Amino acid sequence: MKALRYLALSVAAVLFLVPFYLVVRNGLVSESEISATSWTFLPSSVRWENFAELFGDPAVPLVRSMVNSLVVAVLQTLGQLLLCSLAGYGLARIPYRYANVVFYFVVATLMIPAAVTFVPTFVVVSTLGWVSDLRGLVIPGLFSGFTAFLFRQYFLNFPRELEEAARIDGLGHWGTFWRVVVPNSRGFFAALGVIAFVTSWNQFLWPLVIAQDQDSWTVQVALSTFLTAQSINVHELFLAAAVSITPLVIVFVAMQRWLVRGVAETGIKG
Q1: pLDDT 10s digits, 152-168
Q2: Which of 19, 167, 199, 217 is positioned for an S-S bond with 221, CB 3.0–4.6 A?
Q3: Where exactly are the transmembrane stretches of this chain (predicted)?
């Protein structure tokens, strides 16, 4: 039974890794080999010079775009973890008259399609002069109603005994949150942080509208420029896609232990 389990996991791992291999493989071969009728799983030759061609392409500032995406993703992730955790803790633990009303309004925002708020948000950002500016890319995504909802549900199940012990020591809500709740919720914070980072990194439509000059492009906008009405630069597109997912892989590998712990702390049974 154990051998069959490992065999099934190995087959699943291979199936998940094959698309990543194909992306890297197509990025390191010539255009003709990608579109050849006699396509082979293993390339006949590897063109390492494709890296120099990709990063030297003046039409696509890939490095600058990746830096922009990294800045936006990190700031939005930190902002969501800070603001949404405070909102979730306040809704879960601080009693006041309209707590449920505020919570229902937060949940109601989840039912509004993003397309409905897209134009009003753009008008506000444009009025503030944040078009082609990192502020226009970062600030609208600093708060998420869904993340606040998840934090509230998590804090509702947080052990009250720990908070009561902190109150006996003279801590208020603010001190209890930072000194007791946050240190004991690092796994959950890490799990939501990874989700927020990946979501921010993969955003395309909003950066496409806001980042109207090359200096403010994010990596997803930069990738789209390889596809034009006149031509498709296939091998550079594949190689750029492979390069662009590298930060996501690093985040997953670095946070894997905390992700498992975060899932365990949510009480989800697999």
Answers
A1: 999 998 888 888 888 88
A2: 217
A3: 70-89, 101-125, 137-155, 237-255
Structure tokens at 138: 């970062």
pLDDT tens for each residue of 128-143 = 999 999 999 999 999 9
Number of neighbours of residue 185 by Cβ within 10 angstroms: 20
Stated as kind and residue range, the H or E segment containing 62 is: helix 62-93
Residue for token pair 């006041």? 96
Q: Which of 166, 189, 191, 161 is nearest to 177 (CA)?
A: 166
Distance CA 245, CA 243 (A): 6
Cα–Cα dist 80/256, whole Å: 20
Name the token pair of 164: 């009561």
Q: What is the C-alpha separation between 89 and 9, in angstroms, rounded?
A: 39
Confidence (pTM): 0.87
Return phi, psi of residue 232, to 5°.
-130, 115
